[in-house]
Amino acid sequence: MQRRCDEGSLCAWLKSHNRGLRLLVALACVLMLSLFFHFREIKLDRLVLNHRAERSVVAEVDFAFPDYETTILMKQEAMRDIGLIYQIDDRHIRQVREKLDESLIKSRAWREAAPSTPFDEMYKAADELEELLLEARFTDPRTLKRLTTVGTVGNTYYEWTYVTFELGRMPLSDEVWAQIGQQLRDTNRFRTETIDYVMQPFRGQEWELIEDLALEHALKAKVSRSVSDASTEVAAGTRLVDQGERVTSRHLTMMQALRAALTDGRELDHPLGMIGSALLAMIFVTIGALYFRISQLEFSRSLRQISLFVTIVAMGLLFAKLAELAQVRGNAEFFEWMRYPIIAPFATLLICVLLSQRT
Known about the structure:
Elements: H1 10-15, H2 19-38, E1 57-58, E2 63-66, H3 68-80, E3 86-88, H4 90-106, H5 109-113, H6 119-135, E4 137-139, H7 141-149, E5 157-159, H8 174-186, H9 192-203, E6 209-211, H10 213-226, E7 231-234, E8 239-241, H11 249-265, H12 271-295, H13 297-301, H14 303-329, H15 343-354
Parallel strand pairs: 4-5
Antiparallel strand pairs: 1-8, 2-7, 3-6
């Protein structure tokens, strides 16, 4: 059953001249303006790559930006730490191995040198030694230190003290053979006399070392990836670009970081900011309502005209926000014309045509 509104009650006052609906439209206008004021873009001078800056730009707040140029330099310096890496010619290793196999089969000298060693153990020890020599890589101490930082150095890398390899074939140092012998002993599969016997024909050789270019490139790439991206701190008040200076990619990166820092500093979710935007919107709507109440009473009582007015304002604010986003975030020169305030006169013309000149 429909309830009647008593004369003089709030219900009757709201129904008179559609006051309730007009208040609802006003609240919608306050909400719309609050959102428009609150979610505003950070306006910074627009820089174009390889063009000269129209004016100087100074950092408004402290911020940090990814310094790609410094990162590239750091990667290049890190890759320079990777020196020449050499390996033994595998053909020479296999030749010595074939001679060892032949001596094991035809000669009984190994039985006298290692009387308690069976043939299978001697043959497997030769296999293990051959594998170690094929995987062995020789380089300078600086390269070894750099590879240690990226976790690449293993038992296959050995320090090489020779500066150049222009002398042709040369024997491996006693330190290298000591490391190889220790690796064979660490397997706990071979007797000491077995290891000494299979190493003897290899230790007496002068080896030809060849540069391992593929491994050098792979290690340089790995070292380069291990370098963290550099970040440069910029203090507030620092001049980012001078007037007339040619804009580079570094300048654009700094501007993007500055805009991000300013955006993060706005704290859009802070209650005080929301309350401030709402109060500002209420002031605008209240002033407008008082003006129409005093100067255009018929307009202020017409729900249709008020709704049309608020709709035009809402459309104007929407297009203005889209233009703002295009101008601030867009990079194309197509948006240059949007810097001019064409939205306001466009909304004014619509109000003039659809409502009245006075409004």
